[in-house]
Amino acid sequence: MLRLLYCWLLRFHPARFRERFGEEILSIFDHIEGRAAAAGLLADAFISLLRQWTMRSEYWEEKAAVSVPAGVGGFPVFYTLESFKPRKSALIGGAVLTWIVCSAVFLAIRHTKIHSVYLPSVSFEPAPSSNAQLPAGAPNLSPTQASVRPSTQASTRPHTQAIIESGTNTPEADRVRVGRRIPPEANSSAEVSELREQARLTSSDTLHRNITTTSPVQCLSQPFVSTNISRENPFSYVGEYSTDAPGKFSVLITAEDGHLMIEIPGKQKSMLIPVNGTRFAFCETQNNWVEFMKHDNGAAYGLRIYRNGSEFRGHRKTN
Amino acid sequence: MKEDLSSFLPLSSATLHILLSLAGDDLHGYGIMQEVSRQSQGQYKLGPGTLYDNLQKLIEGRFIQELGHRAQDDDPRRRYYRLTSRGRGVLAAEMARLKGVVREGKLRLQPARPRRA
Question: How crowded is residue A31: how many other Cβ atoms within 10 Å of its Cβ?
Answer without folding.
Answer: 12
